[in-house]
């Protein structure tokens, strides 16, 4: 399988690259700083570029079967600005499947079912900026014709891979307070072969 991974130099993205290469997939990464990719592999293609540049996105998506985005917000609007470019490029290239890493803030609230968690008292975050960015991406994917899945982890310590966690469609598993980076990456990566959560947000926690 030819997999494009965005956010490959981030905590979750780096693990996803490792999992995909371990399984002998062809992996393409689009990164601003190639030097940050500390691995050599014959199946890894590194494209230097920016997700906000349409031409770079078009180059990166050429010949790809599935896209995994582990881009984070970084206090900017990169997420919401890059997604329309990505959706357009995927449509033009005939790519259907996209898996993104979001945040538990955009899952449904249990206490106020008409609200998302970041809009309700469930969220303990002092700022909602990141969740608002992820919410915009969620709405764009909903309006697209893509087969999307948004993996929504709660608090993300680096931690170890435990391999034993709970997932729930559209909600954070009850009482879930954290999930490690490698376990989040493993579940996200596993969705390339799983159609259970297409057109869904998935909460993940221990």
Structure report:
By secondary structure, the chain is α/β, with parallel strands linked by helices. The chain has one domain: NAD(P)-binding Rossmann-like Domain (Rossmann fold, 3-Layer(aba) Sandwich), CATH 3.40.50.720. The protein is built from 5 helices and 8 strands. The protein has helices at 11-22, 54-61, 78-93, 129-143, 181-190; strands at residues 2-6, 26-31, 44-48, 66-69, 97-101, 147-153, 166-169, 200-205. α1 (11-22) links the parallel β1 and β2 (26-31). α2 (54-61) crosses α3. The longest helix has 16 residues, at 78-93. The mean pLDDT is 96.
Strand content: 15-25%
What count of helical segments does DSSP give?
A: 5
Q: Strand order within the widest sheet?
A: 3-2-1-4-5-6-8-7
Total domains, how many?
Answer: 1
Assembly state here? single chain
From the alpha-carbon coordinates, what is the Rg to the nearest angstrom? 16 Å
Order of helices and strands: EHEEHEHEHEEHE
Mean pLDDT: 96
Sketch the major β-sheet.
8 strands, mixed
Question: Which consecutive residue ranges, at least 5 long each, have pLDDT under 50?
Answer: none
Binned, the helix content reads 25-40%
What sort of overall outline do the alpha carbons produce when their principal axes are compared? globular
**CATH domain class name:** Alpha Beta
How far from one another are the termini?
30 Å
CATH superfamily: NAD(P)-binding Rossmann-like Domain
**What is the number of strand segments?**
8
Q: Remind me, CATH topology?
A: Rossmann fold
């Amino acid at each position: 399988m030819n997999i494009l991974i965005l956010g490959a130099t981030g905590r979750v993205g780096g693990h996803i690259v490792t999992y995909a290469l371990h399984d002998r997939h062809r992996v393409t990464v689009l990164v601003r700083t190639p030097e940050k990719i500390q691995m050599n592999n014959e199946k890894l293609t590194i494209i230097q570029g920016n997700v906000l540049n349409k031409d770079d996105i078009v180059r990166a998506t050429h010949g790809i079967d599935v896209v995994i985005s582990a881009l984070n917000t970084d206090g900017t609007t990169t997420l919401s600005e890059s997604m329309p470019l990505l959706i357009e490029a995927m449509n033009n290239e005939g790519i259907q499947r996209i898996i993104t890493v979001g945040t538990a803030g955009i899952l449904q609230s249990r206490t106020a079912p008409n609200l998302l968690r970041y809009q309700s008292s469930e969220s303990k975050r002092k700022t909602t900026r990141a969740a608002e960015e992820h919410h915009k991406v969620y709405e764009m994917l909903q309006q697209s014709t893509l087969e999307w899945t948004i993996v929504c982890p709660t608090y993300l310590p680096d931690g170890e891979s435990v391999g034993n966690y709970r997932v729930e469609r559209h909600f954070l598993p009850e009482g879930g307070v954290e999930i490690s980076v490698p376990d989040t990456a493993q579940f996200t990566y596993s969705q390339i072969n799983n159609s259970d959560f297409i057109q869904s947000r998935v909460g993940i926690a221990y």
